[in-house]
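Journal club prep — side note

Before the paper discussion, L.F. wants everyone to see what a predicted structure for a comparable chain looks like in token form. Sequence:
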Amino acid sequence: MRRLQTHGLLLLTFLLFSSYSIASILQGTVRDRETGESLPFVNITLHLKNQTPQTTPTDFDGNFQFSNLKPGEYSIKASFVGFQPIQVTGILIKLNETKIIKLTMTTSSIQMNEVVISRYRNKLIDKGNTVVKRTVTSEDFQNMAVRSASNTAKNTAGVYSSDDGSNLNIRGSRADATYHYIDGMKVLGSNPPNPNENYAPIQDHTFVKVSQEPLSTFSVDVDKASYTNVRRYLSQGYLPPQDAVRIEEMVNYFKYDYPQPKGEHPFSISTEYTDCPWDSNHKLVHIAIQGQEIEMESAPPNNLVFLLDVSGSMNSQNKLGLVKVGLHLLIDQMRPEDHVAIVVYAGAAGVVLPSTSGKHKDLIKDALNQLQAGGSTAGGAGIELAYQIAEQNLIKNGNNRIILASDGDFNVGISSTDQLIKFIETKRDKDIFLTTLGFGHGNLNDANMEQLANKGNGNYNYIDNALEARKVFVTELGANLITIAKDVKVQVEFNPSIVKGYKLIGYVNRKLSNEDFNDDKKDAGEIGSGHSVTMMYEIIPANSDEEFGLIDDLKYQSEKEVVFANTDEVLTVKFRYKKPKGTESILITHAMENQSVPFEHASTNCQFSSSVASFGMLLRGALEGENYGYKEVLKLAQANTGNDEDGSRKEFINLVALASSY
């Protein structure tokens, strides 16, 4: 009882003196003045004089909410493409008050000049370069794509004027469907104007000659953030930025029917060799690794520290609100032997809940429910404090893990990625892993969140809705909490008598030097309970006349003569892993025989994962097949939904259809 009283005092003190303790709330709805229908995704900006404005989108029902408001006189602005912006001033907010307002918006029309309309309501209007003028209404915005008059280039860009003097910026990535913005706001199809979202640059793999480099070596883990982030973009009417598309994370998002491991190793390895669906002159290698599944009931006890970003940038329902939804689901899964602590950071970092047994679920939820967002982002200080709490409550033979939930916006304290990585690297040897969860849009620091999880021996997930929260915290809880292997590496050796060249699909930022494979000091990825990993190579056969990777003849030496081994093996997969508490790696090898099958006879696993990989390549502009596009991806995915218990494959089909219309 004394411990609970102490915790209550700590919580009360923290809430009274933190920057996010004020309970004033502004709630509202936005509707179409003419139809009365609710308007989702309206941009709402709330401003108090001499304070930084807060922004949030309306939800699917046109609702919005601002919490943690200081007393004062506010103004609010609503803006949405195709509607006249509105502004309301003189909104008085009192201490501890919940104020409700209702907003209505009126549609507008804009005369666009010097624009060639190439498609209207999905019908081709004009293939030429004729300049046309047309009055465009909000209804048209959802059914029209435009392109610049100079439509011969693959990528076009231009600035055009409208009759009200505003600028119309047109960008494009395909000649038959480009995209437009009005007043900096996206209308249909292009990447949204989110300059504060940060993605690490990706340079796709190219074909490599086996005679010059027979080994392909890379690190493996099962991050899935890219798929849900791409889904967020497409669901909101945008094509994602190319660097937001990490193909391996999209492929590994789905569950496959791979053989379960048998014997001494907690992994099975299976391979397939087939025709390449997007290039009939090439082959496709499909490699699958399936991890052993451990039931949560028999898992070791958990020492969890929730590290929650409650800074001002998290002040929206799809950020801190969604964090609470997800963690409530996780708390419901906790056992009495599990312990949870809550550390938060905004202008400063603090402990809201000391390490508490999972049998006190209501106590943990109450502490979580009290949190409100506001202030700057002392992310570095929060991470330091979270590791301190985790170390103080370390379970020697348990799962010690920090779960960081944020939009990745670190700007106070240890703020640089390099500093944070160095700090986390010094802590991972103490068997405390770091899982990162990304939320929201507009200032998502995807690159930061991915790197922190990689260096913290954990995984990175992006949560875009409540269903995804349930997937991460309920359906795949064991995979996300229980690590069955760390420092996982793959090295594939190709046989030059069968393979002339190869290209790894995805895993661009996972590449290792060949020497790293046998170096147990080299950090690599982690795999959780029941996780599967899918890898694919596009292959140029040895008998192909195709030329690639051409370099000048060497001056001081001739090209090394290749001596072919007397074997019919296409390749050998070498797989290294360490046990979660181990320091020495364990090696598994698997050879793939030259037994190619037509692609239509390949497994459902191979065919569906190929559809996902080719979809990612299309989004990245990296698919070289001339006659392979969204139509072919859609057909392939529809024919290979398999046992789609969670509906994720059907959802994927819908996303491909969406992307094809942009």
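L.F.'s comment for the group: The domain at 296-481 is CATH 3.40.50.410 (Rossmann fold). Keep this in mind when we get to the figures.
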